[in-house]
Specification:
mainly alpha, single chain
Length: about 270
């Protein structure tokens, strides 16, 4: 559980950390759009190069960032196998019963897997370089126009911030519950699939109770501090766009433009 890195903040005084959280959100959206616009490996290679530069500028260890992929390894393997075994193509390498391995299936599986990896890594970089408070302020500022239709923007941003903050806390709680169950003689590491499913019940029940207790304590703490939502609420830190944010905006626009040009002039390999 300690390898779960999504939702964790990695403190650094870097170029990426000092970016405005609103620009980070907008750049993340532009990056995701570029990932799905890329229909060949050239476009994904450009996206990968941009991500590597971002990680280097943020001064976060590559190993810590790559650990974000561990949570989707099962999904990666499952989707890759489906595409390898069931995607038809002209160049057939092997065939048995309803399964067929083709060149097009292998290329499509590799393309889709790389997309998923880049998607998870770029999303993790947002939480690595932005505090939960900054995330809340950025989301609330971006969604300000929705207040005109009476949407509780501040409440939505607060819920998102608390959810991100609780991810590592609940992971630590799961680790403590597992250690407590092992101390009582529970065998959580061995056995078949059904045995492991049954052993999750003694973990899920205290985890849900712990989450409810933390939510109740958080609500009491907010009431004790006279928290009243966004009504007449001021900000201690004001968000301001700087030259760094302008540079990030230009990089995001150039990334989408480059991927679109590569998509037009270099067709997909399948």
């Amino acid at each position: 559980m300690k390898d779960v890195t999504f939702g964790q903040y990695y403190p650094r005084d870097s170029f990426v950390h000092r970016l405005d959280p609103r620009m980070k959100f907008l750049f993340l959206i532009a990056y995701i759009v570029a990932i799905f616009l890329a229909t060949n490996f050239y476009g994904l290679a450009v996206c990968t190069a941009v991500l590597i530069v971002i990680i280097a500028l943020a001064r976060i260890p590559f190993g810590k960032v790559l650990r974000s992929i561990r949570g989707i390894l099962v999904l990666l393997v499952f989707t890759a196998l489906l595409n390898i075994l069931f995607v038809d193509g002209e160049t057939v390498y092997a065939q048995w019963w309803i399964f067929v391995i083709t060149r097009e299936g292998l290329l499509f599986a590799a393309l889709l897997s790389l997309r998923l990896v880049l998607l998870v890594l770029c999303s993790s970089m947002l939480t690595f370089t932005t505090t939960p408070v900054s995330l809340t302020d950025g989301v609330e500022s971006l969604l300000t126009p929705l207040k005109w239709i009476k949407l509780p923007v501040h409440a939505l941003a607060l819920v998102m911030s608390i959810a991100l903050r609780m991810i590592p806390v609940l992971m630590d709680e799961v680790d403590r519950i597992k250690n407590a169950q092992r101390a009582r003689g529970a065998d959580l590491d061995r056995g078949g699939l059904m045995h492991k499913i049954r052993t999750t019940i003694p973990i899920l029940v205290p985890l849900v109770l712990s989450a409810l207790r933390r939510a109740d304590e958080l609500g009491d703490a907010m009431d004790a501090r006279c928290y009243m939502g966004d009504k007449h609420r001021t900000k201690y830190k004001k968000l301001h766009f700087t030259w760094r944010d302008l540079l990030a905006f230009l990089v995001g626009a150039a990334l989408i433009t480059g991927v679109v040009l590569l998509r037009i002039y270099l067709p997909a390999p399948f």
